[in-house]
Specification:
CATH superfamily: NADP-dependent oxidoreductase domain
Protein name: NADP-dependent oxidoreductase domain-containing protein
Order of helices and strands: EHEHEHEHEHEHEHHEHH
Organism: Staurois parvus
Shape: globular
CATH topology: TIM Barrel
CATH architecture: Alpha-Beta Barrel
Number of helices: 10
Family: Belongs to the aldo/keto reductase family.
InterPro entries: AKR (IPR020471), Aldo/ket_reductase_CS (IPR018170), NAD(P)_OxRdtase_dom_sf (IPR036812), NADP_OxRdtase_dom (IPR023210)
Length: 308
Amino acid sequence: MPVMGFGTYAPKQYTKEQAEEATKVAIDVGYRHIDGAFIYGNEVQVGQAINAKIADGTVKREDILCTGKLWLTNHAPERVRPALERSLKDLGLDYVDLFLIHTPVELKPGDDPFPKDENGKLIFHNTDIRDTWKALEACKDAGLVRSIGVSNFNRKQLELILNAPGLKYKPVCNQVECHVYLNQGKMLEFCKSKDIVLVGYSVLGSSRAEGWVNQNSPKMLEDPVLNEIAKHVGRTAAQVAMRFLLQRGIVIIAKSFTPERIKQNFQLYDFELSCENMKKLEGLNKNLRYLSLDGWKESPKYPYHDEY
């Protein structure tokens, strides 16, 4: 798995066409890990970008690690393969390299991605996640996906799968929010002990998407300690924040729709943070979760009641 991934989630102010162009830029810059999801609503455009770069000879299909994600309304075993096949059709690909259960929280099965009752409350559902996992294993056996994993799972939820009777393939990764203010030290330690890769999203803090993120939350990239270190090493605060995660063995997903920033975010391999600076950055941890998903707390599968 390439340790630098390009994230394709786009806040509302960006068009789907911008997602396509940004993905092309990312591949030109050198990204080979493209992280997508059904709910981002732009798999068609991301797939067009990947296929355009294959067609013009920039990359071969086997050079790209393309990630898709199973949405919350598709946990029922009979819905797993059709959901994956829909993503493959939209992407214009024969297989994805990695397919993740997007979150352990499940919503009522159906075509409405956010089903709500007459009071406007989300309707949760409760399929045994181990049954969902078995359906993913079948997709892997069918050649529709090369590897399978999870996202936003806590330790107990990971262990439920790891200890499942007849487990055929364990999750290769757990993709979670991870940054200087939420450094996921305990989850990282647990994943390493199980030979599971920790993949971090929102590595620069957050896109601050309205409706998902508290607009009053602190802006991580404005942190004075982070900026002091960045100035000292002659890098941007974003580069230092990402290098911090890389040096801890975390795979990072960075997203931007600005070509210059896409290039900057990839320039992490020609410098190293000292032990002293790593300790300073570790000291910034606040266990601050930008994407706390408060509206999902009533789900029996809400993952953030536990410490990790």
